Amino acid sequence: MKKIGIMGGTFDPIHVGHLMIAEAVWDEYNLEKVIFIPSANPPHKHDVLTSAKHRFNMTLLATCSNPHFEVSTIEMDRVGPSYTIDTIKALKKMYGDDTDFYFIIGADCIHELPTWHKIDELLKICKFIATKRPSYEFDLSIIEKEFSDYNIQLLETPELEISSTDIRQRIKKGYSIQYITTEQVQQYIRKEELYL
């Protein structure tokens, strides 16, 4: 069986935390690759997002030097809300039955899973890897109570307090974002005058 990781998110903008987590999961689970999927119209996000085109371009720039990272427009190409179940079903058609998909999610987002569209069906066709920082306390029984047939594994990843929100706020205030995201992404943000 082939094993492919899925890193979904708004990536507004992508930062080194995303990249480190994807690399850690790729390594730990011996994945063939990790596909980054910028969401076009995420049902759980109510903030105004930077255009999908910009977010895709930044994700591409951040990942292009890594041979086992890939970026997909699968959610941007689809109209309507970006439901993960639809994305995984489409990927299964593309890759065939001999591929297992591992959806990478932050452990702090696990409590939101019961609200996800068709989550029970999703857990049957896709494994979840919940990444947690060493200092983050997480009770796995939350998952066991919510889902009888859960398919979620926990993985400790490096401690990094970085968020896309922080990056946007730093840019607005005129602060440096050096070392928080890649040099290529920083150049793109400056060139396109994003987050000002």
UniProtKB/TrEMBL annotation:
Q: What is the enzyme's main class?
A: transferase
Source organism superkingdom: Bacteria
Q: Spell out the protein name for this chain.
A: Probable nicotinate-nucleotide adenylyltransferase
Show the GO MF annotations: ATP binding; nicotinate-nucleotide adenylyltransferase activity
Q: In which pathway does it act?
A: Cofactor biosynthesis; NAD(+) biosynthesis; deamido-NAD(+) from nicotinate D-ribonucleotide: step 1/1
InterPro entries recorded:
Cyt_trans-like (IPR004821), NadD/NMNAT (IPR005248), Rossmann-like_a/b/a_fold (IPR014729)
Family statement drawn from the similarity comment of this UniProt entry: Belongs to the NadD family.
Task: Please give the Gene3D superfamilies that the UniProt record associates with this protein.
Answer: HUPs (3.40.50.620)
Its lineage opens with: Bacteria, Bacillati, Bacillota, Negativicutes, Selenomonadales
Reaction(s) catalyzed by this protein?
A: nicotinate beta-D-ribonucleotide + ATP + H(+) = deamido-NAD(+) + diphosphate
A GO biological process of this protein is: NAD+ biosynthetic process
The Enzyme Commission number assigned here is: 2.7.7.18
Q: Where is the Cytidyltransferase-like domain?
A: 6-170
Q: List UniProt keywords, sorted A-Z.
A: ATP-binding, NAD, Nucleotide-binding, Nucleotidyltransferase, Pyridine nucleotide biosynthesis, Transferase
- Is this entry keyworded S-adenosyl-L-methionine? no
Q: Which PANTHER family match?
A: NICOTINATE-NUCLEOTIDE ADENYLYLTRANSFERASE-RELATED, PHOSPHOPANTETHEINE ADENYLYLTRANSFERASE
Stretches of the chain forming a coiled coil according to its record: none
Species for this entry: Megamonas hypermegale
| Keyword Ion transport attached | no
Q: What does this protein do?
A: Catalyzes the reversible adenylation of nicotinate mononucleotide (NaMN) to nicotinic acid adenine dinucleotide (NaAD).
SUPFAM superfamilies associated with the record? Nucleotidylyl transferase
